[in-house]
Design brief:
It is a single chain. The chain is mainly alpha-helical and 206 residues long. The protein has two domains: 2-161, no CATH class; 168-199, no CATH class. It contains seven helices and two strands. Strand 1 (167-172) and strand 2 (178-183) form a beta hairpin.
Length: 206
């Protein structure tokens, strides 16, 4: 089982660093901030997973006596790397949705860091502490999905609430006279298609 976990970790590291490099290349070409946020997200995730090998190495060298100082430093490093890729993904989605409110951008990352450190300080070392410490990541992901899901629903609702776009076009009746008629988007499209078909190639292209 340990050998399987070792190779799975290597695959995850390879995928994350390749994704990070691709996002950086896309940013350098397009200059889109979305790609820059994705680059930092996958890069932080790469280091977050890479520290698993450090833990294995330290456990092999020191055995069960890793020391309290190492555990504290390792936990704070987890806060940085975990918060790095979570906040980067948060910025990515906010940038995609056009969210620019500073409080909404900054608050989730600050709350994640404060709550993670509070769990480390308030609870003794044990299974419950580690569960709640890493549970902060799942809580952040659920918050991300909930906030941006509601944002998408609100945007969709505003779009549906807007009246359809109408325009007045001249319609020639059977007697040769023209009169105006208000039409929607689909009617405009069909009217344009019929006009192109009746005009012929010499009218459309030249």
């Amino acid at each position: 089982m340990g050998l399987v976990l070792f190779h799975v970790t290597l695959i995850v590291l390879l995928i994350s660093i390749l994704a990070s490099a691709m996002c950086l290349s896309a940013y350098l070409v397009s200059r889109k901030r979305l790609m820059l946020f994705a680059f930092f997200a996958f890069l932080f995730y790469f280091f977050d997973v890479a520290f698993v090998f450090q833990d294995e190495f330290v456990s092999y060298v020191l055995g069960s006596e890793q020391g309290q100082i190492y555990l504290v430093i390792r936990s704070l490093t987890n806060v940085i790397t975990g918060g790095g890729f979570l906040v980067s993904f948060w910025f990515l989605v906010c940038d995609y949705l056009g969210e620019t409110r500073r409080a909404l951008l900054v608050a989730p990352g600050v709350v994640f860091a404060v709550m993670s450190v509070a769990v480390l300080v308030a609870l003794p070392e044990g299974d419950l502490q580690r569960f709640l410490f890493y549970g902060m990541r799942e809580l952040f992901v659920f918050l991300d999905a909930a906030v941006h899901g509601v944002s998408l629903l609100l945007v969709e609702g505003r779009c549906r609430a807007q009246p359809p776009v109408e325009a007045s076009v001249a319609v020639r009746d059977g007697g040769g006279s023209e009169h105006g008629r208000a039409v929607g988007g689909h009617d405009l499209l069909h009217a344009a298609e019929r006009a192109c078909d009746s005009a012929g190639p010499h009218h459309v292209f030249g």
